[in-house]
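User: Could you check the structure of this?
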Amino acid sequence: MKSTLNTLLKVSSIIACSSMATAYAQDSSPMSCYWQVENQNEFGILEHQLCSNPRDASLPDVFVASRGILRSQNHCSISWFDGYRTELKGTVEVEGDKSACYGHSVSFRQESETRVVDGIQEELLKCRWDKQANNTHKLMCDEVDGGTIGYPVATKIQAENSAQCLMSLNSFTLDLFQGGKAVIDNEPAANTCDLGPVYFRPFPAKRLFDGVEASLLKCTWQDISDSARVKVCPNVGASNKQVTVALMVNGQQQSMLDSVNRGLKTGQIIEDKTLNPVYPPLYFKPDLN
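Assistant: Sure, the predicted structure tokens are below.
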């Protein structure tokens, strides 16, 4: 009996999703969904709505809603898990009255892998929610080159299959990405269950300082011993000099910018902490005289 009910629910929901496909914008695609009975007794029934994974149909179905029906009172309540989903790199959208238990259709809008903001191309970061103990989850994002950031971008508390969350944003982590910083469109509310897309924004190639155009320097750390490293910037100024701007010994960093700038004849190197206070970029500003 339960198997027959599940089949009927799945077929009817798929038909409903298909029939309402034209209600969505062109950048959204209807999801193939069905209701699955999770538990039932003489008092009521608990169902979950699952949809085929829009990124890869071979992966497990996506959980998008939960509803409970009380038989004696003919009452139904529903909770939705729509909005941006980190694991899908896109947004689950619901069409219809979300307070009602019936008459909805579900679609998926994929997030762009790249976007241009203020003339700078940003790249969508690969992020994931890592489950910890006591229903705690940490949002971890990788560097563009695949390297790992050891600190979570956000942390949330969420029980399994619950739409109730408590989230906190670790904004300092956004500045830990080399060559730029991670950006989000909106700071999350404390009760949200997902952060939204996280993009990497590289430092701009050119900046204006006091009306003078400065160029971003491509500096790298180089090992000189087991305990020491130097930060080297090539192609500095018109003479394309290579300069050492910092020294790190046993994890302690010392800036050498003041002495380097005293030795430059055609301009100066500027550390721009307004773009990233943790890993500030360096720009070369030429002299105009």
